[in-house]
Amino acid sequence: MALTATAVAHTAARPVSPGEATGLLVYRNYLAYRRAWYIFLTGFLEPVFYLFSIGVGVGQLVTGFEFNGQDIPYAEFVAPGMLAASAMNGSLLDSTFNFFFKLKYNKLFDQMLATPLTTMDVARGELSWSLMRGGLYSAGFLAVMVAMGLVSSWWAVLVVPAALLIGLAFGGVCMALTTWMRSWQDFEWVTLATMPMFLFSATFFPVEAYPSAIRWLVEVTPLYRGVVLCRELTTGTLSWGSAFSVVYLVAMGVVGLLVVRRRLDRLLLT
């Protein structure tokens, strides 16, 4: 579905501010998804099932771990990792598969650029939508955590903003990488990159379990920074590493957004 005819006619008559352009693109995605709301459940339910099977089930066999000098039960250790993974999944779906379809197959972005919208507007609007999707997943998952008693600090109110930073990082970089995709087969690389991050980014066990060299490699991955940030907020054990994680995720998202703009300029305007 392209932008509505009324919106296009309205925007074609005058320049569009960045905020208005972002709002139009978010609204367009809302219209496209409003009859397929059930699709959103998949990205939310997967980490919830992991939480029940591993965090709660295996948690009966594992006493827990020490995190930033504080002993926490295993389910409380795993839950923030699942929340971070939920934010990653939410932004990943729209910034890879859906973005590729709009770019390569139904040529939606070509239609948008026939209006006063720019490639930066397109990139910003698509990223904003993926952030909203990831934010919804994370907010729902946080509600599950609160209901299960897996939150022990009021700092947890900042978990959803932290999840948006995770979505920003993955959304920006994944959209940038998707502009180089040639066919659907190339998306095997997405699974190859995200599945190891999901399994090994201190989601299910502390990073201290790794040898020094592997631990360093894990600690520079974006999901690890997101997992640690969410875990610090839900347990109230913040550190200087929290600030580093915020800067890291923001920088990653901004760089990805700038690359998307340049790639769209090259693919659609030259």
Can you offer a commentary on this structure?
With 270 residues, the protein is an all-alpha fold. 71% of the residues lie in helices and 2% in strands. The protein has 11 helices and 2 strands; from the N terminus they run H-H-H-E-E-H-H-H-H-H-H-H-H. The chain has helices spanning 5-12, 18-33, 40-57, 74-105, 108-112, 119-147, 159-178, 188-200, 212-219, 222-235, 240-268; strands at residues 65-67, 70-72. It has a two-stranded antiparallel ribbon. A hairpin with a 2-residue loop joins strand 1 and strand 2. The longest helix has 32 residues, at 74-105. The protein is elongated.
Task: Give a summary of the structure in a few sentences.
With 270 residues, the protein is mostly helical. Helix content is 71%, strand content 2%.
**Helix content class:** over 70%
Q: Give the end-to-end Cα distance, rounded to a whole number of Å.
A: 24 Å
Strand order of the largest sheet: 1-2
**Radius of gyration, CA atoms, in whole angstroms:** 19 Å
Anisotropy-based shape: elongated
Instruction: Give the percentage of residues in beta strands.
Output: under 5%
Largest pleated sheet: 2 strands, antiparallel
Whole-number mean pLDDT: 84
| Number of helices, where a helix is a run of at least 4 consecutive DSSP H or I residues | 11
Q: Structural class of the helices, strands and pairings? A: mainly alpha
- N-to-C SSE string, H for helix and E for strand: HHHEEHHHHHHHH
Number of strands: 2
In the predicted model, the low-confidence regions spanning at least 5 consecutive residues are: 5-12
